[in-house]
Amino acid sequence: MTYDLYIGDRAFSSWSLRGWLMLERFAIPHRTHLVGLYSGTMAQDLAPLAPARLVPVMRMPEGTVVGDTIAMAETLAERHPDAGLWPADPADRATARWLVAEMHSGFTSLRTECPMQLLGQVLGFVASEGVLDDLARIETLWRATLEKSGGPWLFGDYSLADVFYAPVAARIAGFGLQVSATAQKYVDTHLADPAFRRWRALGMTKSYDPVPYIEGQPISDWPGPAPRAAQPDEGPSVNLTCPYSGDPVTDFLRMDGKVWGFCNPTCRDKTINDPEVWTAFMEMVNEHDG
């Protein structure tokens, strides 16, 4: 039972991040397909999925197409009741649905003025009154749930509520928005989440000219955990086959004095961007290091 998920560019598409996390984070089998959100091919790419016109879009194993992340979330929760997408406690589950719905329909100033971008932290951004009002409301919602649950996620364990607020955390991080210590800790929890880091590592394999949303604005390093250092290399490598596909290696990186091979530049570059979040790669490294 494998779902097909159609997404926009990982570095910028906040709704696509939500769609992917609700599959990836709950171990629901899926294949990901990239739609030309910024290359001008989006309508053509989505034509076979009509009437879908926006990303993300999910095609169920039986062929039914589902758009809009709330519809996708409820469909997946209904079809996978043991996956834990919603909190188990009925009261928490009702509150989680409330938070998701408010996020889905609200926070217009934050979403308009601070579009999700995962390239780095924009320097010198001054929040408007509308953004500050949105942040105050978000902090109220986060504080109420985190104080009750004790964290680290809004309802203790990771749930769809956290899926929907992951891009909000990314906006706060990407524009250096000032929030309380409690809210910042929750933001940092998202930035350290291995699934979030894999999404960003893949997004950073693609370059843009011009850069959507923040073209010409100065940025500093991304405020998430610093990745383990790795660089491109010419080879040869310790391994003969790619840790992800099993195909012969053609592209290489160097990490900690050893060279590792991959079957294509994307496999190499996503690993360079954050080596330790790729389980297959780290298992290969650990096996060779003994």
Low-confidence stretches: none
Overall residue-averaged pLDDT value:
97
The largest pleated sheet is described as:
4 strands, mixed
Question: From the helix content, strand content and strand pairing, which structural class follows?
Answer: alpha+beta
| DSSP E strands, number | 9
Strand content: 5-15%
Distance between the termini: 36 Å
Spatial sequence of strands, sheet with the most strands: 2-1-3-4
Name the overall outline.
globular
Give the H and E element order.
EHEHEEHHHEHHHHEEEEHH
Rg is 20 Å
How much helical structure, as a percent, in the residues? 40-55%
Report on the structure:
With 290 residues, the protein is α+β, with helices and mostly antiparallel strands. 44% of the residues lie in helices and 11% in strands. It has 11 helices and 9 strands. The protein has a 4-stranded mixed sheet with strand order 2-1-3-4. A 3-stranded antiparallel sheet has the order 7-8-9. The chain has a two-stranded antiparallel ribbon with strand order 5-6. Strand 3 and strand 4 form a beta hairpin. Helix 7 crosses helix 8 (181-192). The radius of gyration is 20 Å and the shape is globular. The mean pLDDT is 97.
